[in-house]
From TrEMBL:
GO terms for molecular function: 4-(cytidine 5'-diphospho)-2-C-methyl-D-erythritol kinase activity. Catalyzes the phosphorylation of the position 2 hydroxy group of 4-diphosphocytidyl-2C-methyl-D-erythritol. ATP binds at P95, V96, A97, G98, G99, M100, A101, G102, G103, S104, A105. It comes from the Bacteria. It catalyses: 4-CDP-2-C-methyl-D-erythritol + ATP = 4-CDP-2-C-methyl-D-erythritol 2-phosphate + ADP + H(+). Keywords: ATP-binding, Isoprene biosynthesis, Kinase, Nucleotide-binding, Transferase. This is 4-diphosphocytidyl-2-C-methyl-D-erythritol kinase. Pathway: Isoprenoid biosynthesis; isopentenyl diphosphate biosynthesis via DXP pathway; isopentenyl diphosphate from 1-deoxy-D-xylulose 5-phosphate: step 3/6. Its EC number is 2.7.1.148.
Length: 297
């Protein structure tokens, strides 16, 4: 018997970052939008825990117990006093170490799939609690749609979205480590007063209206200077997207994937074509959102 769960990637349309907290995490006002690029996690009963992965970036995915999918299976099994005796297969389409919550997607997917396979009957609250234990972005991978994440990003308030937003994503030639980007944020901000992170009212209104121009005027990412400092070539990709007519350009989360907002699907294809021709990135994809979170298929 096996269960397959499909989980979307995310883009942060706003990522406001506060000062480092005593626990090392940063307070965030993090506006997530789930977009239609997906990983699929299939869980099959087996003699012992095993992970396999296929897809363009599969070679970069750890196949040991550090993989968030394995950790999700182990945490759920631990809570229900059983063995995590499953084969986890990840069909990976979300870029690895790209700032699009690919690892978080696999954690949320494995959790939902194991829960269904084992029939644990865990409540939604309990699953969200385990997601928060696994990582700051994992609860959003379960919930999907659009949400404001506060705390370290794990406390979610779901948001209304009045339309579909069309995006282009440019994958970079290498990954960026999220902790390294936050450390660079701290280094760049040394000696400066870092304000409390707050969600932008104008941005939430733009999402609620489904207004791409208004959203373009309000997107922001406080980690972008840190990502650019560690990966200066990303500025060329952003410039190529801007020149191609993207309404807004930004680094997705901690990067290095760059995100480009278009007015419609046609506009997204035009920006995607120009980015492919620019030679400033490894691969280009289009995707729209919001889309639902982790779903059993
Ligand atoms: O929560 P998660 O495991 O995804 O976080 C990965 C790393 O990113 C953390 O160890 C921390 O260095 C950094 N981080 C942070 N503040 C957050 C979220 C993540 O500093 N709110």
């Amino acid at each position: 018997m096996s269960v397959t769960v499909r989980v979307p990637a995310k883009v942060n349309v706003q990522l406001a970052v506060g000062a480092a907290r005593p626990d090392g995490f940063h307070g965030l006002a993090n506006v997530f939008l789930a977009v239609g690029l997906y990983d699929e996690v299939t869980v099959t009963a087996a003699d012992e825990l095993r992970i396999t992965c296929t897809g363009p970036d599969a070679g970069q995915v750890p196949l040991d117990r550090t993989n968030l999918a394995a950790r999700a299976a182990l945490v759920l099994a631990g809570r229900y006093g059983r063995e995590a005796d499953v084969h986890l297969h990840i069909a990976k389409d979300i870029p690895v170490a790209g700032g699009m919550a690919g690892g978080s997607a696999d954690g949320a997917g494995a959790l939902l799939a194991c829960d269904a396979l084992w029939g644990t009957g865990a409540s939604r609250e309990e699953l969200l609690d385990i997601c928060a234990e696994l990582g700051s972005d994992v609860p959003f991978s379960l919930v999907g749609g659009a949400a404001l994440g506060t705390g370290r990003g794990e406390q979610l308030t779901e948001l209304e979205v009045g339309g579909t937003f069309h995006w282009v994503f440019a994958m970079a030639s290498r990954g960026l480590s999220t902790p390294a980007v936050f450390r660079e944020f701290d280094r760049l901000g040394e000696g400066r007063d870092i304000p409390e992170p707050v969600a932008s009212r104008d941005l939430l209104d733009a999402l609620a209206k489904g207004d791409a121009d208004a959203l373009a005027a309000t997107v922001s990412n406080d980690l972008q200077p840190a990502a650019l400092s560690l990966f200066p070539e990303l500025a060329d990709t952003l410039a190529a997207g801007r020149a191609a007519g993207a309404l807004a350009t930004l680094v997705s989360g901690s990067g290095p994937t760059t995100a480009f907002l278009a007015r419609d699907a046609e506009g997204a294809e035009a920006v995607a074509g120009a980015l492919r021709a620019s030679g400033t990135c490894r691969a280009v994809r289009t995707a729209s959102g919001p889309v639902p979170g982790a779903t059993v298929v």
